Amino acid sequence: MATENRNLFVGGNWTDAAGGKQFPVYSPASGEVWSSVADGTRADARAAIEAAREAYPAWSGMSHSQRARIIHKVGDILEARAKEFQEILIDESGSWVGKGMFETYYSSGVFRAAAAAAYQVNGEILPSEYGKLSLVVREPLGVVSVISPWNFPMILSSRGFAPALAVGNCVVLKPSEETPIAGGIVFAEMLEEAGVPPGVFNVVTCSRDNVAEVGDELISNPAVQGVSFTGSTAVGRQIAAQAGGLLKKCCLELGGKDALVVLADADMERAVNAATFGSFMHNGQICMSVERVIVDRAIADEFTDKLVANTSKLNVGDPRELPNCIGPLINQKQADKIRAQVDDAVAQGAEVLCGGGNDGLFFEPTVLGSVTRDMRIFREETFGPVAPVIVADGVDDAVEIANDSDYGLSAGIITRDEERGLAVARQLRTGMAHVNDCSVHDEPHVPFGGIGASGLGRHGGRQGIDTFTETRWITLERGARQYPPPFLMNPPGQ
Q: Distance between CA atoms of 395 and 450, rounded to whole angstroms?
């Protein structure tokens, strides 16, 4: 076991789970138990929420600059411990070492952007018919629950909670049971070191057996006023339904079936590089991964040949070694899902142009040709290292194929004609689109999110501040408004 037992962080204290149990965390690369973590229960979630509720008045009443200094300090601590966190990402989530370097660097930027957000909770002064001082203000929600995934645990946890804290909310974070340390416990350590007051930030870890009861408490508890969730569309729908029924604000970043649209005039090298990176970075386990490569028939043969050649150069192996950019999938369930989609496509006429095999959790980077819209791999999120190539007849057909999906997260368009690229971007039904780049792109300060089955709301930027605050209208009467005479103590003329 590589790390010692880890406990919950509730009310500023490291505590055992209420039931006293722990659950094992496995390393995807070795298959061995890597750590043991507290198996939280509904009672633990309830205690964390209560701690956050009690801490909220003082934290929200703190000046924005004080909150910003604490959040900014977390970024400093993260940078100082970056090498340690990269090792954790490799061992706990199977991250390629290059991905771990990127993730720690990016995550520190999330805290910088969040600290800046503390200075940007802006309001308005409205004109008033009656001469009132008429103010529109934004105030924190209160207690916010954050439920984060395993694929980029540091980025996606910090994106969920750092802006919420910066604008004055208190947080209860439940990281994925696959990555409870990288996605949760390390943040509790950093925030404690940075001086966050007790109860402002809490972490409740739990096994898959307890996910339902802990998750239910994090949504249904009356003290929770907002929910941030990043994960599968199936679970997101349940959370949205539950939160909506309770009239609670929620922000959902869900799955994707993102397209890379390669037009006939595309720069071939740019197109192939974008498709390779977008399809295979972190083994395709990214919500924004290129999961449909839509290429114009005029260049389809040349593009596909070069994509296969480039993909065939990717090394599969120990993710600790820099050349091995294709490491293990997160678990067997994920491997079985990818295997089933590839087998279904082949049974319906798709061709395996390279890859297609797997050794346990190590799945070869795979390019599929002759993919059609009736195949599961066209419709269902894959979340694995598979690039299905679909041939289109012209721009309009490519757009129609790209929009033939319930998902709408991100997209990429490759073309030498920038004006055409922007026009295509406007036609795609996605929350984000990138011209002359693949669908995999993010920055800490941008409004990140999708439409349709890809989610609701936005993380980051001005829109992220709106996500974690509530709009209020406040007026100050200065004597110009008059009530009708029957309601007055001393009506005019009496």
A: 23
At which residue do the structure tokens 């999120």 appear? Answer: 381
DSSP code of 197? P
Active-site annotation holder among 178, 217, 253, 364: 253
Residue 493: per-residue pLDDT: 76
- Output the six-digit token pair for 70: 């604490």
Between CA 395 and CA 403 the distance in angstroms is: 12
Give the CA angle between residues 363, 368, 374 to the nearest 5°: 115
DSSP per position, 121-136? ---EEE--TT--EEEE
Q: Exposed/middle/buried for 348, CB within 10 Å: 0-12, 13-18, 19+?
A: middle
Q: Does the pLDDT at position 5 exceed 90?
A: no
pTM over 0.90? The answer is yes
Where residue 469 falls (left for φ over 0; alpha for ψ -120 to 50; beta otherwise) is beta
Three-state secondary structure of 440-491: CCCCCCCCECCEECCEECCECHHHHHHHCEEEEEEEECCCCCCCCHHHCCCC
| Catalytic residue list contains 438 | no
Instruction: Dump pLDDT digits (tens) for 411-427.
Output: 999 999 999 999 999 99
In the sheet that holds 366-369, the strands lie side by side as: 351-354, 366-369, 386-392, 290-296, 258-262, 411-414, 434-435
Tell me whether residue 287 is one of the annotated catalytic residues: yes
Question: Where does the pLDDT of residue 147 fall: very low under 50, low under 70, confident under 90, or very high at 90 and above?
Answer: very high
Q: From residue 288, how far is each of 5, 185, 208, 285, 327 by CA, in Å?
A: 34, 26, 25, 9, 18
Domains of the chain: 8-254+454-475 (3.40.605.10), 258-435 (3.40.309.10)
Q: Are the CB atoms for 411 and 454 separated by under 8 Å?
A: no
Which amino acid makes up residue 437? D
Which of 170, 206, 251, 287 is flagged as catalytic? 287
| Residue 165 three-state SS | helix
At 262, which helix (H) or strand (E)? Answer: strand 258-262
Give Cα 220 distance to the centre of its chain: 22
User: Which residues partner with 224 through β-bridges?
Assistant: 143
Token output for 376: 């599961």
> What is the pLDDT averaged over residues 85-97?
97
Do residues 261 and 412 touch, judged by C-beta distance below 8 A?
yes
